[in-house]
Amino acid sequence: DGEVHINELKNGNTEMFWNPTGEVRRQRLKRHIVLFEEQTDFESERLWQHVTSAINKGDQHKATQEKFVLEEEQRNAARERRENGTEWKPLLFRHDATTNEWHYKYEDLRPWDPLNDIAQFEKNGILQTMERHLSTRMSNHKTTCINNQITRHKRSVKDCRRRKTSDQPSNHSQNTESSCSTPESVQELSDDDGKYLGLESLCAQCGKEINHLKEIHSAVLSLQRAQQDIHR
Fold it and tell me: Which residue ranges does the record annotate as region Disordered (predicted)?
């Protein structure tokens, strides 16, 4: 979003190649970074801080030295892992043996949906997308889970009644009836009926999506606090 010039070395002339308008500058993507004091030792800004400092000072010799130190430490660490038989397992990347390339585990290659996607954020190194309709999908999925459990319960009631009807009256039939006793009406379920059927314990996916929503909410609050600090 800055000016770009072309310098002609033969005659020393300088020509404007790109000069963005104010509208282009306003559309620049906002950059969010982790505070330096909160970064771990292997995050790029902290890991390469001495190399960066030397480059900013124009000290190419110092930058080269610092880069060599980092690379030598990495070689030594790799050598120790080989000697100890320790396998290196990256947290965020996977290796494609076919192309011999590394790929980000959580990459999302779908096109950005401006009507549904709100923002992307990072948590524990994992890039995630906040969506408008996530809660709606979760609600629909929860309804589907409940309906499936109700259907299974209705089926079990019918099977139980069928068994009672087919059995001859006997002492054993009384035991069968007591073992199959269920509420006669399951057409409309109240909250208490749902608890009776065990519907309050939703499937694992519902629980995961609820926790996912909580994480997104927490991340959004953190971003909002950071933006407020920046404005102040």
Answer: 147-191
